[in-house]
Amino acid sequence: MKIAGQVFCFVVAMAAVGIGQAAGKGYGAEYYRSPVGFAITLAGNVGEIRSNHFHTGMDIKALQGVGSPIYAVADGYVSRVGVSPTGYGHVLYVTHPNGETSVYGHLNAFAPQIARWVREQQYAKRSFRVDLYPDKGQFPVQKGERIAFLGNTGSSGGPHLHFEIRDAQGRPRNLVAEGVFKVADRVPPVVSRILLYEVDSAMGVPYRTLRRSVAVRTQADGTAVPEDSVLRLGRRGYLAYEVIDYKDGKSNTMGIYALEQRVDGVPNFRFALDRLNFATNGYVNAFVDFAENRRAKRTSVLRAYVSPHNRLAVYGVARDGADGMIDLSASEAVGGRRIETIFTDDAGNRTTLAFRVERDTETCAEAAVPQGEAVSWTTGKTFRVPGGEISIPGGALYESMILRAERDTVCGRPVVRAGSSDVPLHRAATVALAPDSVPARLRSKTLVVAVDDEGRIGSVGGRWEAASGRVVASVKRLGCFAVAIDTLAPVIRATRAAGVQIPAGQTVRWTATDDLSGIVYYALSVDGQWELVAWDPKSRTLEHTPVRGTTARRHNVVLTVGDAKGNSKTWKGTYIW
User: Fold this and answer.
1) SS3 state of residue 363
2) What is the pLDDT of residue 363?
3) Does 13 score more than 60 pLDDT?
């Protein structure tokens, strides 16, 4: 590998914020049982902030380990079955007579009758990854029937059950906030910081400046106190809060359910996370302070502000014209504004934070105007610089911004820079780079890479465009980009020496790694016949379960793994089973 040349509407039924119970309750505990046979303890909750999305389910800890039974929460039928190396991994969907659907993700295995059918379909399609829709009467299930086993498949950070109930419109419900399932929780949300953003404008575009980050401590009575009782801001701005939640006796963090900010006693911002909509889940990047979370390597800084391009329907009063902006320029604000913010978790525990914000006339003049060009979120913009072009479409930015594009150098490597990696995109931008020279034989191996401030690179994909002589890729974040050439094949290592006997009940495994463009293809044959092999990107492991005859014999095994640039590696050997 070398571097060449240069380089939603998120629908929510609004509740009165602070009551800890979702509005518009659906079917509850009288209809649904628990999907597990032990006390529900959460590793993650509905509405928790994840990378580029809200978490849509309950992550139930594996208190009885991998392989513990998973039960249907109500009568119904299996309407969908999926197997994937990413996402929910092994996942089951059960549709119920009330029109709702329960979802069980990251499973280790399905119930035997479902598993047999899935395996048949995988062989018929010659694919480990399948997305299947059985007939309505094919797999009927009864409430309490064992339908699967808890696992750690897909994009899972550890053994657990990802569980959802989606309403008849396909929206995941906040089951704890609605009281469908009880989770021990007497711990109020923990607020650790207030961030004050001053908003000004240049070239007709608003821009923000982080004026101050103020530490907060929570007292025993549930009130929170900033280190300063009076905070200062310029003429106009908004606030963000770093806030997390915990369950009783647990150290892992959760997301809060609701927030209401009052200015001089009048609500000017609030949200409540009740029912989610996958179509607009990506607007979470406007819900949080993306740049601050990225710098702090957290996901808990939430903006008390509704940006112009934000289709989330969680905000209540904000949709009536209050977007969270605090105005200190009006005559009645001479003595400052009184702020009271109430944070509520899904069990109804509250933390209240009260303070004053006063006008600071000195800081206004000190704000540094960003350098670059105005980019409207509605229309976007195409930047052309030596060696490259970055096209940002309308609807990509969450708010209009002042951005700068240029040719630059990072750690001695030429790059094309557009904005920064602190700028997320709702719609993909197109990066087109013209490397200084690439031999014809290597053009199919080119791709675009993102380059961080330390010069480290990561693939964002792309391909050579013959007509323009450029490498073109789609990106969901701005930053620094360069062209790379990937000619190295993946590396395969068997975990057992070739020629050995595989004991009964055990599997054959290999590890597979790739240096840049990533593994996209894997195929296994045994004695010349295609065989199923499971790929787990987390552990970089490929695993095959042998089909055994009555007598053990030697088998010829061939495994081929390929990356996104057509480089492939083949492992050949024999095993006895």
Assistant:
1) helix
2) 57
3) no
**Cβ atoms within 10 Å of 496's Cβ, excluding its own:** 15
User: How open is the CA angle 341-342-346, to the nearest 5 degrees?
Assistant: 150
By DSSP bridging, strand 350-359 and strand 223-226 are parallel
CA 39, distance to chain mean position in Å, is: 27
Q: How far is CA 498 from the centre of its chain?
A: 40
DSSP 182: -
For the chain, how big is the Rg over CA atoms in Å? Answer: 27
Q: Using CA atoms, how far apart are residues 353 and 303, in angstroms rounded to an integer?
A: 15
> Which one-letter amino acid corresponds to residue 304?
A
Question: What pLDDT is stored for residue 142 in this prediction?
Answer: 98
DSSP 386-405: TTEEEEEETT-SSS-EEE-E
Show the beta-strand stretches assigned E in 36-100.
42-44, 49-50, 53-54, 58-61, 69-71, 76-83, 90-95
Provide the pLDDT for residue 7: 34
Strand pairing report for 350-359 and 230-233: parallel
Which amino acid, one-letter code, is at 370? P
Helix, strand, or coil (residue 37): coil
What pLDDT, on a 0 to 100 scale, did the predictor assign at position 23?
A: 44
The per-residue pLDDT for range 61-99, each reduced to its tens digit, is 999 999 999 999 999 999 999 999 999 999 999 999 999
Q: Is residue 52 packed enough to be buried (19+ CB in 10 Å), middle (13-18) or exposed (0-12)?
A: middle
Question: Which helix (H) or strand (E) element contains residue 479?
Answer: strand 479-485
pLDDT band at 223 (very low <50, low <70, confident <90, very high): confident
Q: Are 546 and 502 a contacting pair, CB within 8 Å?
A: yes
d(CA 558, CA 568): 13
Average pLDDT, the chain: 92
pLDDT at 12 over 50: no
Task: Please return the burial class of 568, using the count of CB atoms within 10 Å of its CB with bins 0-12, 13-18 and 19+.
Answer: middle
**Angle value at C-alpha 235, between 231 and 238, nearest 5 degrees:** 60
User: Over the stretch 138-150, which tens digit does the pLDDT of each residue have?
Assistant: 999 999 999 999 9
Q: Give me the pLDDT at residue 321, please.
A: 57
Burial class (CB in 10 A: 0-12, 13-18, 19+), 189: buried
DSSP E strands, 245-330: 258-263, 266-272, 301-303, 326-327
Residue 525 · residue 558 · CB < 8 Å? yes
Separation of alpha carbons 62 and 424, rounded Å = 34
Predicted TM-score (pTM) of the model is 0.91
Q: What is the largest CA-CA distance in the chain?
A: 91
Residue 116, number of CB atoms within 10 A of its CB: 11
pLDDT of residue 302 exceeding 70: yes
Helix H or strand E segment including 354:
strand 350-359
Classify the C-alpha dihedral 115-121-124-125 as positive or negative. Answer: negative
Q: What is the pLDDT of residue 10?
A: 30
At residue 14, does pLDDT exceed 60? no
CA atoms within 13 A on the CB side of 56: 26
